[in-house]
């Protein structure tokens, strides 16, 4: 039911993601991004991460019960005719199965996957079963994937030291997944610019912006993928969505919020402040 509307309705955009309690990353970053880019954001929560300030800000990770994840998705999918979803931290093989089943229960225009394999501060390989389940059960459903340096190495199987390697990784990940790829070099690749490689099977484009400091900022990956999802939900073409998202996240890193944790946090609202 809708009373007379004065403006066109916003594009409904779902994120299936975890809460990072300090708000820098995860669902909180996604929702701020959606709001800023003018789409109606919804979240289905997969887990709660609470950093431990008494223990070097290690991650305390609690998955949401599977039935509760399924219930959230049932409510959301019954409520709205969704066309666009962003996937953030899923966290366990069981959650990956629950989310994969919900994704397969309907058709999508855009499934934007931020393939969160490990979080900052975690040891590579800490969650090998989850990594494998993500590759086997979620990656094939993605239409757009945004691996960071570590995830691009893991998904492509090659070592990435420079932009040529990043291009090769983007090509491999596209070949194996069929998805549009934005492989992020971030601060990991040497040079004055933060470089990402876009590849959709035809167009290969290097997106570049001057680095803002040399330390990764919390929420940058979440914000980038959420911005891509928001732009796609509004009807943008994939390359335009990637370009807009890159500009948006670069601005958010410039406007970062300082914190007592080892990483500052992206601020999505700075541009219009
Ligand atoms: O930045 C990756 C990420 C995504 N989602 C959640 C997180 C993190 C990293 O801390 O906690 C919930």
TrEMBL record:
It holds the Pfam family Phos_pyr_kin. It catalyses: pyridoxal + ATP = pyridoxal 5'-phosphate + ADP + H(+). One of its GO terms (cellular component) is cytosol. Residues 22-260 form the Pyridoxamine kinase/Phosphomethylpyrimidine kinase domain. InterPro entries: HMP/HMP-P_kinase_dom (IPR004399), PM/HMP-P_kinase-1 (IPR013749), Ribokinase-like (IPR029056). Its EC number is 2.7.1.35. One of its GO terms (molecular function) is pyridoxal kinase activity. Belongs to the ThiD family. This is pyridoxal kinase.
């Amino acid at each position: 039911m809708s009373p007379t509307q004065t403006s066109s309705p916003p594009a409904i955009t779902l994120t299936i993601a975890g809460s990072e309690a300090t708000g820098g990353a995860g669902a909180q970053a996604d929702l701020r991004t959606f709001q800023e880019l003018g789409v109606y954001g919804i979240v289905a929560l997969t887990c709660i991460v609470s950093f431990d300030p008494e223990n070097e800000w290690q991650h305390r990770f609690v998955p949401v019960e599977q039935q509760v994840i399924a219930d959230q998705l049932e409510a959301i999918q019954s409520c709205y005719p969704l066309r666009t979803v962003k996937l953030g931290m899923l966290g366990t093989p069981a959650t990956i199965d629950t989310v994969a089943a919900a994704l397969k229960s309907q058709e999508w225009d855009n499934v934007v996957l931020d393939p969160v394999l490990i979080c900052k501060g975690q040891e590579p390989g800490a969650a090998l079963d989850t990594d494998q389940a993500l590759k086997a059960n979620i990656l094939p459903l993605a239409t757009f994937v945004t691996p960071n340096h570590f995830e691009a190495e893991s998904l492509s199987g090659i070592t990435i030291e420079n932009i040529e390697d990043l291009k090769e990784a983007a090509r491999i990940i596209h070949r194996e997944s069929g998805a549009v790829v934005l492989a992020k070099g971030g601060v990991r690749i040497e040079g004055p610019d933060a470089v990402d490689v876009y590849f959709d099977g035809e167009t290969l484009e290097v997106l570049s912006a001057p680095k803002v400091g040399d330390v990764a900022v919390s929420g940058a990956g979440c914000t980038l993928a959420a911005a891509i999802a928001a732009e796609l939900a509004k009807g943008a073409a994939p390359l335009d969505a990637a370009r807009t998202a890159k500009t948006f996240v670069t601005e958010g890193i410039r406007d970062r919020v300082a914190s007592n944790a080892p990483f500052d946090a992206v601020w999505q609202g700075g541009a219009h402040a």
